[in-house]
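Dear Dr. L.,

I hope this message finds you well. Following up on our conversation about the binding site, I have prepared a predicted three-dimensional model of the protein together with 1-O-phosphono-alpha-D-glucopyranose. For your records, I am including the exact sequence and ligand specification that went into the calculation, followed by the structure tokens. Please feel free to forward this to your student if that is useful.
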Amino acid sequence: MSKRVRTAVFPAGGLGTRFLPATKVIPKEMLALVDKPIIQYGVEEAVASGIEHIIFITGRGKSAMEDHFDVSYELDATLEKKGKKELLELSRKISSLARVSYVRQKAPLGLGHAVLCAKELVGDEPFAVLLPDDVIDAEPPCIKQMIDVYEEREGSVLATMTIDGPDISAYGVLAGAPDAANPRIYNCTGMVEKPKFENAPSKQAIVGRYVLTPRVFEMLEKTTPGAGGEIQLTDGILALLQHEKVFGYTFEGKRFDAGDKFGMLQATVEFALKRPEFGEKFREYLKGLPL
Ligand code: G1P
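The resulting structure of the complex is given below.
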């Protein structure tokens, strides 16, 4: 039996240029979706999926993220003094979610390079990768669904969704065929990062959730710059495919690209509508708008 997936890697070194000017000083991972930084949604998803160790791959200007997942002594002491129990619990919970480690990616060489930075900390066991920009609303959590597929099929698993049209060229795209036994599973035979629409091998786009075997590190060490001049995770996984099985998995749930202004707006509306404290009030407000 394969080893258990205990570690999740969160590449968080990117500059967030798609969200300027908000991200000039604030890391994009710290932008709030309703009232929680987008990175916290990913961390909570990982923890709810059985992950015990979180590895953030960070870079310059990302220290707010480290502070967020650390104990805030001054804040906690003030909340305690004022008897604000619920808020104190909220603050304390964040710092006790999981064991957290940080690795600095010294240069923005690409997603594949970011994941490779976690090699020593992950060791010789399977691990999850969650791209914080992709916020996924799912039950069971998306990465849990994928860990289940990994355990059943004993091969790396990439989250996918169908994209019909030219937008697919913003993604990694799989080649292969749907599995006969489970239509959510896609048996990969290849993959290409950000192909031109006319060259896309299928409509199966990779979304930012992966369960990978440690052999991918060996592949990433040999991966040369690809699309956009960057060391691409997709290329590393393509090399892995020469040695091991790799599956696409159409998760149950809804994905939002919260690293993009429009995607963040969509996520904000949908997540706000679900909040018991003000969801109904917000729905009424939206209904009253002269749209
Ligand atoms: C990355 C991956 C790409 C994947 C996408 C999902 O691209 O390289 O394969 O489809 O995330 O969000 P990025 O969006 O960082 O350019």
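In brief: The first helix runs from residue 38 to 48.

With kind regards,
A. P.
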